[in-house]
Amino acid sequence: MHGHDSMAPSFAEMSPRISFFLDYYEKIICPSVVVIDSPSNPYREHILSLASSSRSLQHAICALAACNLRMKRKQSLGQDHWRQQPLELELQDRINGSSTRPAHTRRISNHPSSPDGQPRDSSLQEEYQHRSLAVSLLDQQLTDPSKARHDCVLATLFILCHYRMCESGIAQFRTQFAGVKKILGMRESGMETGNWGWMETLFTYFDGIAASINDREAQLRGGYLEMIANPSNPNHALENIAGCDSVLFKTIGKLGRLNMLSQHRSVMDESSPITNVRRQTPPRPRPGLAGQALVDFYNLHAHNFDGNGFASTLDDDSLFPLLTSTTSQDDLRTSFWTEWKAARAALQEWEFDPSRLVATLPATPSPTQLRDFGYISEAFRYSALLYTERLACPNLPSSHLNFQNLVSQVLFYVTSLEQGSGAEKFLLWPLFISGSECVNELQQSIVRTKCREIMGRSGYLNNLAGLEVLEKLWLEKEENGNGVENRDVFGGPFTWTRFMEGSDGEWIMV
Fold it and tell me: Is residue 171 a contact partner of residue 505, using CB atoms and an 8 Å limit?
């Protein structure tokens, strides 16, 4: 289903600056976000087609391109540590209302500001202006059910999600994916209708990865994971747009739920029907509001916005009965081990199928590319096995052979990829999961180097955000001696969680 914004300029009528950013997106970003680029690359073919008639999408692309250009410029200047990058903080934190963020999660800015509080860097002002316009236009569309169904709305949300991954990798992703799920419901996407596209596939992937890291259950589950594993169209297959085998991801996408069950925490009862809840509309800035006044508006209403165009009233939990509401601790324990064994068996039985993969790719891969597809999926598989091992043995130290054997397998495949491989940029989740169990300098050095290399090529800051969490975790192990963590002072199975506490949003490792 296609749709457009009112009064959207055609490409021929665009300002030179907007044309520049769209060209940067097409030439630089589009090839970098798939394994094998081709004329049918949906980031280029589908998104740019929609952008020709959508102002919200044009501004979202401009924000992403400006951010990516800024990150790569800083890389070239050697400003490779994200907390020392000068610019983004005062304004960004104020827009998000996160001035109360704890010091250990707040980035540092020493960039001189003008008297009205605006940073002097005009390119950053331009980036935030595009982002604010995209969010404002998007929110107008979301208040109208007939417009909310349009492809350009989903595409704008998708590009803003990329913007957040590029800008920091930290945002209110849970709220965003809950909203995406409602839009997909309005569009009747899913198993029953077969109405499915590549953005649905990637939103489901992003949500599953975010859930596994952020102590929650995925919003897009059940039939969404079935559609990922059985795409109706080869162009919608996960492999070329995320590196990971789609059948394998059907199991990985359930790990967040398994984590919740392991802690005897609430999970959704999948057998209950979904009910529709009317979306409440957040306040909108009046037309013409700009500069400090716009910053103050977003700061004042920060509790209503997540920075992606969705109001915080989109809370998915209200739509589902909780399995724990009538479930005893014994039943929860039984549910955990039943689902754990099913996941473990699926991960152990999965095998890379080159013939199935070739049928889903836009071009015939070289032998090296085909091998790399297998290697990256194996890195995901062994990371998922490591994840399940930690759930089963929450109190064992990382140095235990149960963990170290799996860490070695992940790092073997990570380091076996062709240098500069098109698949390498999708390694952040395996690097993060295996990195959390690393116990020696050699292992940590591999993870550190790979994260920095991926950041250097992609310009997406979520790679360094994930690495920073790992650096804190490694430092704690070193200070405690012998690689032992403080597992007795924290309830959950994953030690990384406490280093993410207090941040204004979720972390995404894709």
Answer: yes
Spatial contact of 195 and 224, defined as CB atoms under 8 Å apart: no
User: CB-based burial of residue 52 (10 Å sphere; 0-12 exposed, 13-18 middle, 19+ buried)?
Assistant: middle
3-state secondary structure of 506: strand
According to DSSP, residue 507 is labeled: E
| Mean per-residue pLDDT over the chain, rounded | 81
Give CA–CA dist 318/316, Å, rounded.
Answer: 5
Query: Cα(312)–Cα(296) distance, rounded to whole angstroms?
Result: 18
The closest alpha carbon to 256, from 498, 505, 494, 504, belongs to: 494
Contact 184, 227 (CB under 8 A): no
Helices (H), 283-395: 291-300, 329-349, 354-358, 367-392
Contact (CB, 8 A) for 461 and 82: yes
Cα gap 11→21, rounded to integer Å: 12
Residue that wins the pLDDT comparison between 100 and 464: 464
Pick left, alpha or beta for residue 190 (phi over 0 → left; psi -120 to 50 → alpha; otherwise beta): left
Q: Are 413 and 375 in contact (CB under 8 A)?
A: yes
Distance CA 391, CA 408 (A): 19
Instruction: Report which of residues 143 and 289 the model is more confident about.
Output: 143
93 alpha carbon, distance to own chain's centre: 20
Question: Tokens in use for 470?
Answer: 């790992």
Residues 6+ apart with CB under 8 A from 129: 290
Which is more confidently placed, 189 or 86?
A: 189
Tell me how far apart the alpha carbons of residues 321 and 497 are, in angstroms, rounded to a whole number.
Answer: 26
Tell me how crowded residue 214 is: count the other CB atoms within 10 A of its CB.
20
Q: Out of 188-202, 266-280, 428-442, 476-490, pick the least confident.
A: 266-280
Mean pLDDT, to the nearest integer, of 172-177?
A: 90
Nearest by Cα to 340 from 257, 227, 432: 257
Question: What is the 8-class DSSP label of residue 99?
Answer: T
Query: 113 pairs with which residues across the strands?
Result: 119
Q: Provide the token pair at 505.
A: 């949003």
Examine the pLDDT at 457 and tell me if it is beyond 70.
Answer: yes
Q: What is the DSSP letter of 170?
A: E
412-427 pLDDT, tens digit per residue, is 999 999 887 888 999 9
Token pair recorded at residue 372: 């790399």
